Amino acid sequence: MYRGLEYILYCDESDREGKFFSNFYGAALVRSTDINQVEKELNDLKSELNLNAEIKWSKVPSHEAYFKRYCRVIDKFFEFVKKDLIKVRIMFKQNRYVPINLTKEQKDHEFLILYYEFLKHCFGLKYSDEAQGGVIKLKFYFDDLPIPRIDADSFKDFIYKLGTTKAYGDSFLILRENMAEVNSKNHVILQCLDIVLGSMCFRLNDKHREKPQGKYRRSKGTIYKEKMYKHILKHIRDIHPNFNIGVSTGRKEPCDSWRYSYSHWRFVPSNHTIDFSATKKHKK
Question: Is the pTM of this model over 0.90?
Answer without folding.
Answer: yes
